[in-house]
Amino acid sequence: MIMQLILKPQQGLHGTIQVPGDKSISHRALIIGAMGLGTTTIHNFLFSQDCLTTLQALKNFGVDISQNNETVIIHGQGLQSWHAPAHALDMGNSGTTTRLLAGLLAGRPFTTTLIGDQSLSQRPMQRIQQPLQQMGAVIHLTHGHLPMTISGQPLHSLCYQMPLASAQVKSALILAALQASDTSTIMEKLPTRDHTERLLRQFGAHLTTSDDHYKINIQPAHQLQGQTIQIPADLSSAAFFLTAASIITHSQLQLTNVGLNPTRTGFLKVLQRMGGQIKITAQSQENGEPRGNLEISAAKLHPITITATEIPNIIDEIPLIALLAATADGRSKITGAGELRVKETDRIHTTVEELSKLGIAITELADGFIIDGRQPWSVINPHLDSHGDHRIGMMLAIAALKCSAPLHLKNAAVVNISYPNFFQDLNNLLSQEEISS
Ligand code: S3P
Q1: Residue 380's CB: how many other CB atoms inside 10 A?
Q2: pTM of the shown model
Q3: CB 153, CB 179: distance < 8 Å
Q4: Can the peptide bond before residue 147 be classed as cis, meaning omega within 30 degrees of 0?
Q5: Most buried one in 190, 307, 311, 325, CB count within 10 A?
Q6: 273 among the known binding-site residues?
Q7: According to the annotation, is 343 in a ligand binding site?
Q8: Residues enclosing ligand 1, CB less than 6 A?
Q9: Please, what are the averages of pLDDT over each run of 10 residues along the chain (437 residues)?
Q10: Ligand 1: which of 98, 166, 395 to mutate, most ligand atoms within 8 Å of CB?
Q11: How far is the CA of 205 from the centre of ligand 1 (A)?
Q12: Rounded to the nearest whole angstrom, what is the distance from the C-alpha of residue 57 to the centroid of ligand 1?
């Protein structure tokens, strides 16, 4: 699908919007609910392609799941009731589904094969295989990638220092550790998103985190109990509109019920440091997850320097930070972000390749970029490409709002991975004359 993008809205973006439910929490609520006993009701579940991949996979293990509108209901019968799937399971594009399920399946008494699309089949899986093997798991990869075959085993406990910052790896190990013979310890060099830990506590697991958030102890779980979960709106999806409102003059937006877990709010801090006009109101907490409303208006932005320690907290928003930097009054530098090279695409390369088409002064580094926002934009190539990466596609649709020449986006439908109504929601925030012009 090639889409014509909207250019230069004169009046900016206006209105109030609640973006869809958090992707990371939706995956985890499904998986943990499916491990539990009794009913788990998930409100504001994200019905996107990635989360539906998790839902479908769980049904293949015999988990009874029903849905109505934005609610998913799991009739949990406990992990013991899971059975071997009848065929290899297709993980589609979803790294979160693959890695979290691999951790869980490492301790189940049956064999499962996981396959994925072209992008997922190139993403590294040794990062979970290696520590899971230390627990006694038997996992076969294909040259370090999918297809992956997991033959579940009785697991022993783990004491593991994470060599890289990854919430997916950490969560896989936690889900395995719940099935281990004794208490496990996982240590992180930099804290990553902790939705798994927060949700598991609500379901009754015994899991403690040190005060500095670097060390997690996980006791083998007695039976987890079904819960009711209210998923907040996804800050990573809200970030597209926060960026748009910041860089398009006259914009003023309110985003409601946005997840504000401190392991995810790095983007708000970066935007504030750049001079972004953002206000947080109506803060509350539910299911151990903070949330609130965000008010944002257009701002004059300044350059920024970002280094490794900040990266895990902004990992999915870095292409948007590159775009913000491309409108700032100076030179920005982002380093320590090598993990971007193993996302749905090599996001350092795709961000540089696509933003360069708009005449933006962006230079690729091994682990980041340098962006000079002082260089005026001028469209060099109007044929933009999402490269099959949802976050790159949506970032480019926001970048187009700053351009005057007609632009096209190849493979725009990939937004379905995390935000199926992205283009409708963007249109609703623009005035009607601007959409039809
Ligand atoms: C996610 C963790 C991050 C993030 C991804 C979702 C999660 O990946 O980039 O979009 O839900 O755990 P890594 O943990 O591999 O950094």
Answers
A1: 11
A2: 0.98
A3: no
A4: yes
A5: 325
A6: no
A7: yes
A8: 24, 96, 166-168, 171, 192-193, 315-316, 339
A9: 88 96 98 98 98 98 93 97 98 98 98 98 98 98 98 98 98 98 97 97 96 92 93 98 98 98 98 98 97 98 98 98 98 98 98 98 98 97 98 98 95 98 96 52
A10: 166
A11: 22
A12: 19
Strand 89-90 vs strand 138-142: parallel, antiparallel, or unpaired?
A: unpaired
User: What is the bridge-based pairing of β-strands 277-286 and 289-297?
Assistant: antiparallel
User: Which residues, 6+ apart, have CB-to-CB distance to 112 below 8 Å?
Assistant: 84, 85, 89, 101, 105, 149, 150, 152
Q: Give the Å distances, CA to CA, from 282 to 163, 231, 259, 268, 342.
A: 38, 16, 12, 16, 36
Residue with tokens 């925030």: 429
Structure tokens at 34: 């499916």
Mutation pick for ligand 1 pocket among 93, 168, 267 (CB with most ligand atoms within 8 Å): 168
Cα→Cα distances 240→172, 269, 273, 275, 364, Å: 28, 15, 17, 17, 22
* Domains, the chain, ordered by start: 2-21+233-428 (3.65.10.10), 23-230 (3.65.10.10)
